Amino acid sequence: MPRDHLPSAGRSADSAEAPFLELLAKGASADAYEQPVLLARAEGLPARRVAALEQAKLLALRVRTEIEGRRRREAELSALFETAHDLGGLRDLDAVLRAIVQRARSLLGTDIAYLSLNDVARGDTYMRVTEGSVAARFQQLRLGMGEGLGGLVAQTARPYVTDDYFKDERFQHTRTIDAGVQDEGLVAILGVPLMIGPQVIGVLFAADRRERVFEREQIALLGSFAALAAAAIDTANALTETRSALDRLGRANEIIRDRSAAIERASDVHDRLAELVLRGGGVHDVAAAVSEVLDGAVEFTDPGGTPVMAVEAARTGGHAVRHGDDWVAAVAAGGELLGALVLRGHPDLDPVDQRTLERAAMVTSLLLLARRSASEAEQRVRGELLDDLLDARDRDPGLLRERAARLHADLDGPHVVLAARLDVVATDAGQEAGTRGRLWSAASHLAATRHGLAAARDGGTVLLLPLGPGDTATTLARRTAKELGTAVQETVTVGASAPVDRLTAHPEAVAAAYTEGQRCLEALRLLGRTGDGAAAEDFGFLGLLLAGDRDISGFVGRTIGTVVAYDERRGTDLLRTLDAYFASGMSPARTKDTLHVHVNTVAQRLERVGRLLGNDWQSPARALEIQLALRLHRLSSDRPR
């Protein structure tokens, strides 16, 4: 390769791989890969750079070898499939044998390829097809059993290879055979037997006019062509028997073609399923791959989504069963039914395709079990972290943050602790354990999808979920109760704490928040609101009794915070007016006497309060909460500073 066309080692100083990638892209010869290293040395580049280029060269040569190997295997498989296709439409035996010999010569890259057949009547073997031969005497050779390399292959039914025929003493050399080989100028010869069952019917050869070592893969490839040639010969012999036999063989060829296509489809789906498993695909990816290969609609259904009798028959028998125009394959593991793969609208299913559907069902069950195992492992880890937070066993903020990050959870943001419990009466301990297990599983799945944590605790489940934008503790509790109830098909009640944050710095807050959530849960159950979700803020002043930290300032702020802020901004006297109004039995006339103002002033102030607190501020329930908030605010304001 001219120097001007070589990748420069110097101008790609930042990447040792760049010059070799260019060579790979150009399909350069193996010798060209030495040039970047030689150029680097000639240019006096540092030893470290030269060493990097050496390493990159070795890697590039490995990639080149792999690429060439794959191309070669693709060409080999393509030739084999083309030959198999020729067999399916066999009309002229000589044409098929010529195609086999031509493809064998092309793929092995030899000077000549030829095929000989045994003559049972004469007890020898003769040339039938040659490709690349130039010597007439060689093309008309007949070899006795055991004579020459071909005779030895025909006699022993084993492949033989020689790097130099005339120097090889393993074969019985005869004047006739040696003269024919010499006329052709052959040196290296490979021969493999053509066999029908245990019987050798001939030999397929590949030969070069120079010394050569045939690799194991090349011997196996020629053996594959020999098997196809033997099949072609056997088919042709059968076609010559009688017309009735011809008709039967025609039908057999139809079956062979169908089976070949089915086997190809099975091989295709095997490769696709293996790829899906390796890249972590899901059950619906498996269904999609099988749909494409079987040319039909395949879908995965849950255990209850398919007729019970069909699924049970498939599981019991271990095979796909026909149900109307559909085929059903059970997806099961041990004694557990995980679902089914259903092939829709495909009543006539080839046995090979049926087995393909069954294998897909097996792969689906493995994927489901793997996903379940991974999910259970993650659930345990999430539960352990939440248990440590609840028990305050791990107070190292850095370690807590690191453990949470591995689970894609951010403990520094606002979170809500939720206590969830099933409201169902179990008939026995086994049923109770089962329902609790379903609740924990559903809660763990919910926590994983919401980047939170979940753990089984106190006969129920506790969750630590992040508070999203626009969410409140109440909305999160109600949504969680609904989602868990739907998942387990039972009534689930959820009590929530007030939002807590910076849990890595204050892990003890989780335990206090859990206590608050439990109190809300018990309050809901006592009030007959099972199946609902609520937080302390939903119970008004009763929330003070439920809240673990007695959030007085929070209660005051929620109840009369707007009035307090208005007074502070405007310098008005609305709080004092409210105190006097309630102390006067909600009478404006008595209120104006207490405040020593005009009654219209009282009316105006109360109108302003109504706009700040809402039109229902004088209802009995609201009035009670407002009076309590006023009292707490006054007590808080009177504390020594």
Total beta strands: 15
- Class inferred from helices and paired strands: alpha+beta
Considering DSSP H and I runs of 4 or more, what fraction of the residues is helical?
55-70%
Shape designation? elongated
Global mean pLDDT = 79
The major sheet is characterized as: 6 strands, antiparallel
Number of helices: 22
**What is the first-to-last residue Cα distance?**
91 Å
Content of β-strand: 5-15%
Strand ordering within the main sheet? 3-2-1-6-5-4
Low-confidence stretches: 1-6
For the CA atoms, what is the radius of gyration? 42 Å
Question: In a few lines, what is going on in this structure?
Answer:
With 641 residues, the chain is an alpha+beta fold.
Please, could you describe this protein's structure?
It is a single chain. The chain has 641 residues and is an alpha+beta fold. Helix content is 56%, strand content 15%. The protein contains 22 helices and 15 strands. The protein has helices spanning 18-26, 35-42, 47-88, 93-108, 136-139, 148-156, 175-184, 216-239, 243-278, 283-294, 308-317, 351-391, 397-406, 429-449, 473-488, 508-526, 543-546, 552-570, 574-583, 588-595, 599-613, 620-637; strands at 112-119, 124-131, 142-144, 160-162, 188-196, 199-208, 297-301, 321-323, 326-333, 336-344, 415-422, 453-457, 460-466, 492-496, 533-535. It has a 6-stranded antiparallel beta sheet, sandwiched between helices. Helix 14 (429-449) crosses helix 15 (473-488). It is elongated, with a radius of gyration of 42 Å. The model is unreliable at 1-6 (pLDDT under 50).
